[in-house]
Design a protein that fits this description.
The chain has one domain. Helix content is about 85%, strand content about 0%. The protein is built from four helices and no strands. Helix 3 runs antiparallel to helix 4. The N and C termini lie far apart (about 90 Å).
């Protein structure tokens, strides 16, 4: 079998010695290994920072969603209250209009004030509806 090994053209002692790692390659590998280690550490730090930022963003978004919901509920309550007040003012206006008899009293000043009040309330309602529609 020894004859076959030496007769084999692919086997040569020179190839065996060349393929074995030489000491200079180990020295060159050390800076590369340290650089790879440094890069891996840096990558791990960046990944950790990204994960922390992602958690912060999710927390911030949750708080923001909660606050938006609170504001919507408050606006809804204010809108209901305002609608009730408008309805009461209209009922008062209807009652005062039905109690008035033509020619006996001059309530033009009171009716003008009532009209201005109703227009103000309706303008507020319109503003509230527009704001709610935006959200």
């Amino acid at each position: 079998m020894a004859e076959q090994t030496t007769a084999d053209p692919t086997f040569s002692p020179a190839l065996v010695s060349v393929s074995s790692p030489s000491p200079p390659k180990k020295e060159n590998a050390s800076p590369v290994d340290s650089k790879l280690t440094e890069l891996n550490e840096s990558r791990a730090e960046l990944l950790n920072r990204i994960l922390n930022l992602k958690q912060d963003l999710q927390s911030w978004r949750g708080k923001l969603d909660t606050q938006v919901q609170v504001y919507r509920e408050e606006l809804s309550g204010l809108k209901k209250t305002l609608n009730l007040e408008v309805e009461q003012l209209r009922e008062q206006d209807d009652v005062s209009a039905s109690l008035k008899t033509p020619g006996l009293q001059d309530d033009s000043k009171d009716s003008k004030e009532q009209m201005v009040t109703e227009e103000t309330v309706e303008a507020r309602l319109t503003d509230e509806n527009a704001k709610e529609a935006e959200h």
